[in-house]
Protein: N5-carboxyaminoimidazole ribonucleotide synthase
Organism: Novosphingobium organovorum
Amino acid sequence: GETIGILGGGQLGRMLAMAAARLGYRCHIYAPEADSVAAEVSAAATRAEYDYAAGLSAFAANCAVVTYEFENVPVAPLTALGAVPVLPHPRALETAQDRLTEKTFVTGLGGTPAPFAPVDSREDLRRAIATIGTPGILKTRRDGYDGKGQWRIMTPADADDLDLPDQPLIYEGFVHFSAEFSVIACRGADGAIVYYDSPHNRHKNGILDISAAPAPAAIEAQVPAARALAAKVAEALDYVGVLTLEFFATEAGPVFNEMAPRVHNSGHWTIEGAVTCQFENHIRAICGLPLGSPALAADAVEMRNLIGEDANDWAEILKDPANRLHLYGKGEARAGRKMGHVTRLAFDD
Ligand code: ATP
Ligand code: MG
Ligand code: MG
């Protein structure tokens, strides 16, 4: 089989490598960590710690195609690779890794994000709050995940008390939503798009807690408009692979939160809960193979993340034979760290 290069060494890379192995491919991981949980299940790994840009082309030279499971990698060296295809295209990565670029791009395609304004100074923040109002959320434009790099601003006085971090920021109006959901789509090399059932996503402390499909009717009603936006995003970026868009369901329709140019935590339920999981379809797409069915393989499915010490209860979780347990092989159960997840399928009688 051919070799697939994966940038990033976390659990998403691990699950991609496992799906790739099933199809006879070998994976090679490019990541800074010495103890990458993706490298453990892959053929080879290269540490990128010392010089990401310089090491990248030697890494890619051994690969038939390069993909990524992590957004916070420099784009320029990827664009310069030339001979080896990078899928999804680096432009998707570039768009998604900056919240300002991403929201501006999606607005241009007819999507509706929360009102937003860039913030590079205290004066910008005052002006943004005067225009958009409170409550709102100040976020770093880059590098945020699991709710990190975010500050809730309930009153203008909160903003005055804040020590502004020295990096580009964005202020967003707070969205009063009834629920959150995601669109998980996969676009093949031939342009065909498949959509998974949109899961209802619930968060705890800014981190995804539970994803469940099918979603309640109030979400289902907003899925067609959300999918139409995802299709526009995918086509505009000539996208190949799995693409995820997060939404708030509101009285006025779906409000776009953010996109991820990759497989997504809210799609982990697809491993058991769909005919073809998101990881396999991503591999199929970037390898130019036909996509598999995204259809639900049960009447309902629920995925719960195991965060930090939650994962220490794994023996307890296995006492229920209906639980499907996934542990990522991470050493230390630090608070807020994604250690694994549990999936349950349900069948109507
Ligand atoms: P992820 O791990 O999904 O990449 P992230 O760090 O990029 O997370 P966001 O998705 O921007 O963070 O925000 C995390 C959560 O905070 C959202 O899922 C939502 O629950 C809440 N949130 C974020 N922005 C807003 C907003 N403008 N209005 C209301 N709630 C919000
Ligand atoms: Mg995010
Ligand atoms: Mg998010």
In short: The chain has a mean pLDDT of 96.
